[in-house]
Task: inverse folding
């Protein structure tokens, strides 16, 4: 049966990087992968065209699709309108509407990129950690929120960090299940010494750990976790954490692998329907220059094949093709080092296609 993929390229470098992932998917399609790609508008591009960053047509397309491939949203032009990423709008609206609560962000060091990592080669060699980030709750969604004017005329900004036990439990179980297939260790990251909401997070993680006696659970405060990530990242197997902590820690972890342009992600609902996107944003500072790294998006397409489309072998092949291209010494600017060959976004995509 043909599976339908909604392709939402978005803004900034979004269309450039998604274009390269589409090239890769089209090669697989030509050799028998049964998928149809359907493009839709999201973010600033959608706002300019329709007046909404998440038009009804896009939401319907995403809901009907078997999987979604997304580039990135946002940019200077739309920042003041806060339209592209806020809850109920744009990207966060999409994640919420589709109940994509489980965000998997693997940080894997390709050995060829050891010299691009911000850490010393012996500290990162063999790095393979999975950040499991809660994606539809926490402070990015909590109510009340806003900016209000106080009686004395001063403005006050406020947000709410809020989690129900059931929200914590379901993301915790995702992390434990993933750990079972990996190194059997979960580190739950919170700020339970200061924030009651994450004290509950810690309690729930401890409670459900009893159902996974084969998995070791540890807890770590987020400030220490940030430090440990850049000190000795190989101590971690699976990290599970809240929406905002996971957002920040995954950007941090990306640099251990050489660049934020290397980290893919899967955002899954309870049935493993998913949206797949690089962890980075729309990079307006380099948009339109054909120099963004498309590998995170290509690797996100591989995750889509593995997690939602049931095509693990083809996912493996994409990952192997990426590895081969790195073996050839091809590097976009963000992962470039002396002696390597500097390539553009589209040249990198072409090279992955050739390696396939
Ligand atoms: N998932 C999404 O759609 C996200 C959207 N955003 C939005 O993106 C816009 C820019 O946000 P920033 O904070 O600048 O974060 P960003 O991730 O877009 O960029 C941060 C830095 O990383 C670089 N970078 C990012 N992706 C790259 C790639 N593939 N290859 C090479 N270099 C890359 C950029 O050039 C920039 O210097 C904002 O409007 C923000 O709201 C930010 C994060 C995620
Ligand atoms: C709208 C933001 C929460 C997007 C982001 O930074 C991310 O998902 O990594
Ligand atoms: Mg982020």
Result:
């Amino acid at each position: 049966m043909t599976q339908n993929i909604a392709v939402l390229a978005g803004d900034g470098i979004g269309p450039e990087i998604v274009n390269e992932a589409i090239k890769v998917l089209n090669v697989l399609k030509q050799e028998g992968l049964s998928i149809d790609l359907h493009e839709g508008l999201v973010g600033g591009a959608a706002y300019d065209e329709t007046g909404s960053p998440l038009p009804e047509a896009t939401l319907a397309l995403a809901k009907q699709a078997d999987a979604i491939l997304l580039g990135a949203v946002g940019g200077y032009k739309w920042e003041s309108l806060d339209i592209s990423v806020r809850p109920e709008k744009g990207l966060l609206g999409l994640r919420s509407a589709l109940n994509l609560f489980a965000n998997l962000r693997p940080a894997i060091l390709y050995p060829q990129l050891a010299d691009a990592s911000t850490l010393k080669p012996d500290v990162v060699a063999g790095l393979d950690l999975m950040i499991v980030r809660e994606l539809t709750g926490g402070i990015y969604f909590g109510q009340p929120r806003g900016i209000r004017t106080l009686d004395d005329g001063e403005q006050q900004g406020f947000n709410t960090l809020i989690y129900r036990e059931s929200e914590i439990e379901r993301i915790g179980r995702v992390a434990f299940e993933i750990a079972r297939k990996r190194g059997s260790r979960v580190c739950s990251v919170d700020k339970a010494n200061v924030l009651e909401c994450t004290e509950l997070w810690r309690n729930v993680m401890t409670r459900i750990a009893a159902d996974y006696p084969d998995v070791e659970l540890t807890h770590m405060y987020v400030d220490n976790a940030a430090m440990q990530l850049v000190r000795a990242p190989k101590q971690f197997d699976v990290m599970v954490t809240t929406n905002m902590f996971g957002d920040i820690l995954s950007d941090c972890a990306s640099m251990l692998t050489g660049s934020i342009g290397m980290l893919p992600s899967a955002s899954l609902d309870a049935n493993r329907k998913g949206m797949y996107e690089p962890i980075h944003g729309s990079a307006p500072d380099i948009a339109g220059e054909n120099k963004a790294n498309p590998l995170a998006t290509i690797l996100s397409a591989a995750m889509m094949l593995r997690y939602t489309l049931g095509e693990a072998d083809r996912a493996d092949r994409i990952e192997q093709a990426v590895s081969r291209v790195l073996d050839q010494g091809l590097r976009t600017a963000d992962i470039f080092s002396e002696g390597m060959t500097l390539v553009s976004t589209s040249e990198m995509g072409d090279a992955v296609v050739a390696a396939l």
Observations:
- The pocket of magnesium ion (ligand 3) is lined by residues 247, 251, 279 (CB under 6 Å).
- The mean pLDDT is 96.
